[in-house]
Specification:
The protein is α+β, with helices and mostly antiparallel strands. It is 37% helix and 17% strand. A 4-stranded antiparallel sheet has the order 1-7-4-5, with no helix packed on it. The protein has a two-stranded antiparallel sheet with strand order 2-6. The longest helix has 16 residues.
Length: 205
């Protein structure tokens, strides 16, 4: 949500019709962190992958590296959704009505995100103005960027000075091992969910 709403996600489903298949995917860089909201807009949504949706063995598998498929297996990929730009309370009611009619957002989401009030004829302009004025008076100053909860958790686990040290130490290594080193250290130290300090990082390196 935002004065200008982020783009909607795309949904793709792939079914293996052969005896077996191996699926690999490159990229998927927004499966960990959300697209950033700007100037008061909300962060977008991370992507997701669902294996065999609607079947007994359905499960969310996150970012794909290598996936082995049997005949009839289905992979549903839901792309990330774009972030909002600008103050949500400045989005014009007619645009919000169009979003609702098009099925892009629900009545409940419109009321929650944009502080609009619906009556039997659509959005009530006077009641909406009053509700928006109340929300403006009670909310905190709008942030320049909204990163989403996943980025907040990551920043608490990996403080800036520790990330700087990791990058610096990685650059001292031979180019061919930098990326594997970063991936191995980050995976090992993120596994316990605790904040990483410089001493722990140096020991892991």
């Amino acid at each position: 949500a935002g004065r200008w709403r982020g783009g909607s996600a795309l949904v793709m489903e792939l079914e293996n019709t052969g005896l077996s298949a191996t699926m690999t995917v490159r990229g998927l860089n927004r499966f960990h962190f959300r697209p950033w909201g700007v100037n008061g807009g909300d962060a977008g949504q991370v992507g997701k992958v669902i294996f065999n949706p609607g079947k007994p063995d359905e499960r969310s598998i996150g970012k794909i590296m290598i996936l082995e498929l049997k005949r009839g297996d289905v992979v549903r990929m839901v792309t990330m959704a774009g972030a909002g730009f600008g103050d949500k309370l400045e989005r014009e009611p007619e645009r919000i009505s169009n979003d609702v009619r098009a099925g892009l957002i629900s009545h409940d989401k419109a009321e929650r995100d944009y502080a609009v009030v619906f009556d039997k004829n659509g959005i009530d302009p006077r009641a909406t103005d009053e509700k928006r004025a109340e929300r403006r008076a009670s909310r905190a100053p709008l942030p320049e960027f909204t990163f989403g909860p996943e980025r907040g958790d990551y920043d608490r686990m990996w403080p800036d000075d520790v990330r700087t040290l990791l990058a610096t130490e990685a650059l001292r290594q031979e180019p061919g091992i930098r990326q594997p080193l970063l991936a191995a250290v980050e995976s090992r130290l993120s596994a316990n969910g605790k904040a990483v300090d410089r001493a722990t990082l140096k020991a892991a390196l």
